[in-house]
# Entry
Amino acid sequence: MTSFAAPVVAWHADADAAAPLVVLLHGRGSNETDIIGLADRLPRAAAYAAVRAPIGEGGGYAWFANRGIGRPIPESLAETMAWFRAWLDQVAPAGRPVVPVGFSGGGAFAGGLVLADPDRYAGAAILSATLPFDAGVPTTPGQLAGLPVFVAHGDADDVIPRDLLQRTWTFLTGEAGSHTTAMRDPGGHGLSAGVVDALAEWLGHLLRLEDVSA
# Structure
């Protein structure tokens, strides 16, 4: 079992300890400071925590070792998910709504979290990312039954393999059983203003928060 350092977390402002917690998960080779700014465009009444991934890579950090883009090594993913859940159980006891929002590699990690334990989360957002297929988490029909999911893909994304993007889209809009809001964006591998606005609206409805930042 790999021993990871304690999580480094960037928090956005002060929030009620009982407020819904949105966990922002950065992309591969990035860090928590690159994604915490997203909270400025999302519902203000939620609490936001951007967590630094535990594996150093390329001047930044990664959520899992992989065998190619979008293809986690199962043992690595299992270890980092266990590390993440240990932190989450400390900051968000059962009963507090938690929504992981992940971009790219962070989106694959968010997908792994909800596939492994869908009852733990109030929903999930998968942004410019694939789900971690064939990586030790269940992707059987109905695995995400009833779970609200937001998925956004860029039509010009040339980073995540096209077959994985399509497989993710097909699964989340079909046999996963999730309540999926799906968005295709004309852009590439990134978060356009349109995607962020749609994410903010989805989160507001999901968490029943009316105050969305302009």
In short: Residues 210-214 have pLDDT under 50 and may be disordered. The first helix runs from residue 74 to 91. Helices lie at 74-91, 105-116, 162-172, 193-207.
